[in-house]
Amino acid sequence: MNPLTNIKNQNALNDRELSLGYSGDLKKSWHSKYNDSAWIYVGGLNYDLTEGDMIAVFSQWGEVVNINMVRDRKTGKSKGFCFLCYQDQRSTILAVDNFNGITLAKRIIRVDHVEEYKVPKYKEDADEETKRLWEEGCAPKPLKRKVESMDRQLERVKKAEEYLLNLGDVDEELIRKIKSDKKRAKKEKKEEKKRAKKLKKYLRKAEEDPEGDWKEKAKLYDKAVKEEDLYETNTHFDFGKKKETVEPTHNLRPDFEKAEWRDIEIWKVIREREKAEKAARGEKSEAWGPEDHYVSKRYQ
């Protein structure tokens, strides 16, 4: 039968179903005969269309998982028809009802169901891309998520619970110190931003009027140069602030060029005593380098 006649007969069948009120009822519709097949036939195609073009056009009715564009074995040119498979069988009904008889690339195409699709014979001389398409199809690969074992997940939950329980044992003084440090850092950042804004303003004024007022220039110098850069940090007026004193845990080796003679003599006596104790135990005493320290027994 002529393809155009088939198209007209199929469209007439759809119109009759609409008039009888069967549209949407898959049990009464003529589409129910093809419930077990997700393949459709597309004929009357333009010879320049490729598999990618067909997927792009027909994917608006559902996910296309496979396609077989029938081509000439010698030349590789399309023969004008193809078979297309959807992931959901209901997509075939939408494609047949909406695309049968439309004009695609200046040619009227025919779209119909395929009751029993025959898999093409495997050809050894086919290219790798065609073989991969026959075996795997053209659907995107599903995303695989690596799931940890149940024991591993339970272990992570226990660790999280222990961590949350231990939060109550944190020293309150440490928490106050962390909060004060954050507050001070935020304040310093705000002041630095304010100073940079004023500096930008004074620089713009200086560019506009190089021979300007000396007061404006003084303000510019005050904002451009920090006091610490000129005079270093002045700790003389730090009244009421706690000074952190670190107690040394060892006796440093004295600098023989700067140390007093008393420190040098004390260090020599300690060194000789340590050598004698090692010799009594039968141990050898190695020469000390300039970076070594003497650690007394009470800290050992």
Automatic annotation (TrEMBL):
Q: Which SMART domains match?
A: RRM
Family annotation (Pfam families): RRM_1 (PF00076)
Which biological process, per GO, is one annotated for this protein? mRNA splicing, via spliceosome
Annotated keywords? Coiled coil, RNA-binding
Report the GO molecular function annotations: RNA binding
Upper lineage is: Eukaryota, Metazoa, Ecdysozoa, Nematoda, Chromadorea
* Name this protein carries in UniProt: RRM domain-containing protein
State the coiled-coil residue ranges. Answer: 175-209
Annotated GO CC locations: catalytic step 2 spliceosome; precatalytic spliceosome; U2 snRNP
Q: Which InterPro entries match?
A: Nucleotide-bd_a/b_plait_sf, RBD_domain_sf, RNA_proc/Spliceosome_comp, RRM_dom, RRM_Ist3-like
Q: Which residues cross the membrane?
A: none
Task: Report the residue ranges that make up the RRM domain in this protein.
Answer: 38-116
Looking at the record, which segments are called Disordered? 277-300
Q: Which organism is it from?
A: Caenorhabditis angaria
